[in-house]
Write a structure and sequence with these properties.
2 copies of one chain form a homodimer. The first copy, chain A, has one domain: Orthogonal Bundle (Farnesyl Diphosphate Synthase). In chain A, α10 (about 190-220) packs antiparallel against α15 (about 280-300). Chain A starts with a helix and ends with a helix. The first copy, chain A, has helices spanning about 5-10, 10-25, 30-40, 50-60, 65-90, 100-105, 105-125, 130-155, 160-185, 190-220, 230, 240-245, 250-260, 265-280, 280-300, 305-320; strands at about 95, 95-100. The longest helix of chain A has 28 residues, at about 190-220. The first copy, chain A, is an all-alpha fold and about 325 residues long.
Chain lengths: ~325, ~325
Amino acid sequence: MPVLSRIKKPIEKEMAEFEAYFGKTMRSGIPLLNIILNYILRRKGKQMRPLLVFLTAKLNGEIAEPTFIAATFIELLHTASLVHDDVVDDANERRGSLSINALWNSKIAVLVGDYLLSKGMLISVEKNRFDMLEIVSEAVKSMSEGELLQLQKSRKLNITEEDYFKIIISKTAALLSACTACGARSVTDNPETIRLMKSLGENIGVAFQIKDDLLDYEGTGLTGKTVGNDIKEKKITLPLIHALEKSEKSTKKHILGIIKNKKKTKDDISEVIKFVSDYGGMEYATLKMNQYRDNAFAIIDSYPDSAVKESLREFISYTTSRKK
Amino acid sequence: MPVLSRIKKPIEKEMAEFEAYFGKTMRSGIPLLNIILNYILRRKGKQMRPLLVFLTAKLNGEIAEPTFIAATFIELLHTASLVHDDVVDDANERRGSLSINALWNSKIAVLVGDYLLSKGMLISVEKNRFDMLEIVSEAVKSMSEGELLQLQKSRKLNITEEDYFKIIISKTAALLSACTACGARSVTDNPETIRLMKSLGENIGVAFQIKDDLLDYEGTGLTGKTVGNDIKEKKITLPLIHALEKSEKSTKKHILGIIKNKKKTKDDISEVIKFVSDYGGMEYATLKMNQYRDNAFAIIDSYPDSAVKESLREFISYTTSRKK
């Protein structure tokens, strides 16, 4: 059985119900909007975020309507952010199909993103789930702050390891910790449990992002993004940060010179990858990733054995061992 | 005294306090974001929306903290939508200064817009004003739906008067009715009062948008947008819709041919304006605008005389008589 199907097993029924529930929210009175919403629905991704909401909920209690509300809100928000991302990156493809901005245009894509976000807010308001609205709006704010911090730092190339962690905690881990916090919140109001689950999501999120950044150096070609893409785009991530910190002043200057150069050759990219490898950048990042993974495992292991606990362990392993 | 200063008179103190209150929310821990937020603050507009929130609040009770929360939330949201608009329209200027996307870039501008929106949500959540969150998120959804309906209709050029009103009620009137509904909600929980004030904002909003569309035909050159700009961009608004409905089939076909043509000459634009004028398009739109204006006056006139009532009357008059 493929790993994701195995992970989904204990909440299979609920995930199928979620699909129907989510589909119902993706309807509007505006014909053009309906066409676009259907297009998005037909090209759905791996649904990692709803999956995490349901697993965390089931780990802590009985899945009920609030769990569906949380998963829907977060998936709407995540979809909105992908639609906006494709606009700002001028990306023509998403999940192997044309992006909204490519198939329609940027103006429509920004509006559809805004629509999805407000729809998510409205669902939580209508269902009186202000606790979730608080968790999720904090995450949205954090995500945009993280992205902006990254843009600011990458302009100056002076990003430290501390900056890196600050960025990925805001940018990636915030939404995953919103998933686990809302999942828990949907079945319990015990603040200690919610805090613990928030921390679970944050650790998974940080490990997930380090893995993503590692794939740019050691990717197998399976990944959507080509190896070396981050280097091309002057995105300085943990493997490179570590190598730069370990290297002599002159080597550092030389490598930063390559990074700064807008027109990089294939040889330039290879040189940077070799440099990072020589200075142990990948090993160091893997070590750090595994620390966060192990934190996540430790949280899960405080729970008694169950099928859903096993699924969450597999989810965490998958996050840090995936090849794309 | 200039008209806007006269309108502000009864809530002068509160508007000054609002400025300080709003300024405090426009601060962040991210240096780049702070620079941009300061840039936005220094180039603030006429603040019509906060003004409407405060006037409606004072008309119905005593301005207090909830009024400041409502005005801040709506102004954050409005600012977010302007920042996003400039991205999708690829506009380089806003209020006589460079736009965020021009001075920084589109990616940063989309993120700043998302940040402002989530910040507004968070303020209402933190202050436990879920009633306002509901009013405002309904407005955001409506605004994006209205814009999308407009884009859909303008592609096919088959827009009817009914479509036009549906679009402007969603696109423009929704946010102004959120201002008046939240303003009332901040001082009373009487549902009848809130409903009446919502209707006031809707009528002002429709009149405001018809005036905006009229200025494209009869503008004085004072307006930011050049006369004939809507025609150039294939935006079919009430004056033209009416003229097309009144004209013979062959004339209609000829005019639509000009509209469809991507490369319009100055003479083309003049011909369309003359056509609209000949078929009474401007008069008809003015008539309709005045009906909505009079609905707004009638609502205000149900209140006993006061300085704030007089200000609201002036606000409405200004909306429909402004030259830009």
